[in-house]
Write a structure and sequence with these properties.
Length: 218
């Protein structure tokens, strides 16, 4: 296991840290994801049966099994001070994007990065325990085994003055900046309004797709 490289929250420090060196194992961050081993697919199907998720739910919502990242590096801590991790190539792209946004007077903050299948399962279980229906829970959180967060390539973002994971982020200067510049760094909005996956609109959720970035201007 390679040691984690830690990104300091300060943007000046971000610009200097070589936290995505060749020593870090690269996650594919590809779109679509590569086919997953049958044993992995069987495991996540078993997990989802235990949650009461219909066997055909993923197929009906055009969801593909996602790999779970193993080699992760730290990115800026979230708005609650908690550790956030991403796959190395996604983290490197996030670094460049944060610095560019700051240059334009936009402050981006992290909310959530890598989440394991076990963590995702816990999110669903807590919602079900609170009395939420499985259908509603799955419109808010991805089916375990199919979440972009488990790849280490997705990040939830916010900006000062906007609640975390809130649709009001859509009206922020930060969201407008991401719409204009996110693709430059390989980040794309995963769940727009009316998306085919059955998820609620998430203006805060952005996924890094390897090979999709254009050359940054600075």
């Amino acid at each position: 296991m390679h040691p984690l490289r830690i990104l300091a929250p300060a943007l000046t420090a971000l610009a200097l840290l070589p936290f995505a060196s060749a020593q870090a194992a690269e996650a594919p961050c590809s779109e679509p994801p590569p086919p997953q081993p049958a044993t992995w697919v069987a495991h996540i199907e078993e997990v989802n049966r235990g949650l009461g998720i219909p066997a055909d739910y993923a197929a009906r919502h055009h969801l593909l099994p996602q790999p779970e990242a193993r080699d992760l590096v730290q990115v800026p801590r979230d708005v609650y001070g908690r550790k956030v991790e991403m796959a190395a190539p996604a983290a490197a792209a996030l670094q460049r994007m944060f610095v560019a946004a700051a240059h334009d007077g936009v402050k981006l903050e992290t909310v959530s990065g890598f989440r394991s299948v076990a963590y995702q399962t816990g999110l669903i279980r807590r919602k079900l325990k609170s009395g939420m229906s499985i259908q509603k829970a799955l419109s808010i959180n991805a089916v375990p085994g199919y979440s972009e967060h488990q790849t280490g390539c997705a990040i939830d973002l916010t900006t000062p003055g906007v609640p975390a994971a809130d649709v009001s982020f859509e009206h922020s200067k930060a969201f407008a900046w991401l719409q204009q510049h996110g693709a430059t760094y390989g980040f794309h909005l995963s769940f727009p309004p009316g998306n085919q996956y059955g998820y609620e609109y998430e203006p805060w959720h952005w996924r890094y797709v390897a090979g999709s970035a254009t050359t940054p201007l600075r």
